Amino acid sequence: MLDAAVLAAPPCDTTAPVVPLARQAWLLAKNDLRQELRDLELVLTAAFFTLVVLVMFALAFAALPAADQTLAVPGMLWLAVAFVGALTLTRIFDREREADTLRAVLTWPVDRVAIYFSKLGVTLLVITGCGALLMPALGLLFPAAEVFWQRPLDAAALLVLGCLAYAAVGALFAAGLATASGKNVLLSVILYPLTSPALIFALVSTRALLEGHAQFHTYLGQLAALDAVLVAVASWLFEPVLLGSNARPAERRPSARAKRTP
Questions:
Q1: What is the C-alpha to C-alpha distance for residues 123 and 187, in angstroms, rounded to an integer?
Q2: 47 vs 181, more confident
Q3: Angle CA(197)–CA(200)–CA(205) in degrees, nearest 5?
Q4: Residue 161 above 90 pLDDT?
Q5: Burial of 46 (C-beta count, 10 Å sphere; 0-12/13-18/19+)
Q6: How much is the pTM?
Q7: Percent of the residues in the chain that have a pLDDT greater than 70, as a whole number
Q8: Which has more pLDDT, 5 or 207?
Q9: Domain definitions of the chain by residue range
Q10: E-assigned strands of the chain?
Q11: Are 158 and 202 in contact (CB under 8 A)?
Q12: Residue 227's CB: how many other CB atoms inside 10 A?
């Protein structure tokens, strides 16, 4: 059930102030997180997948020389984030789809952009949580990745900004395919090409961190600017994408009959 405070909120429009929108997004996200903490289905699946990927990386690349590890570790990190993110995004609208409540969500007195930010927040929380487990483990397994322990604030900022760029695009298209048949395949086909620029930028920034590059903070600022653009564009497109994927044929029939009426 939706939080009572959300149901009591007045309808919002594009001129609504930031604070009510943020509160609505938080209440929606809190509702999703409460349900997730009850069954831990998504969290346990993502954590187990992260563990499996980490073990595979350790077995495959532990013998690499330190110079080669500097090249390999960024790929390991963001490849794992991409896989965990895809797994999360294919399930982020599952409760609404399985209970057939997505159309009901659209009738709630809540700004539809708040739905996007709530799903974005939940997705970001899951994948950054898995990344927070992965980064220290890579630092223990690979000497070249010890910088994750030595510069934890820089590593944390890089992880959050990189995951935000991925989740901003992913949450948009997960909503568009929430009720589509074969949505998992379609989401993967659409997701990886569109998120690859953000992942590549995050990968380059990670390599700069491992190498102690002087321009690392410049890369970090550029990644933050990319995040701002992606979130702004995705939030602007969210409502037409969501409505386009969930328009009911019955809603179009009256107009068709009206055309045939003399």
A1: 15
A2: 47
A3: 125
A4: yes
A5: buried
A6: 0.80
A7: 76
A8: 207
A9: 19-246
A10: none
A11: yes
A12: 20
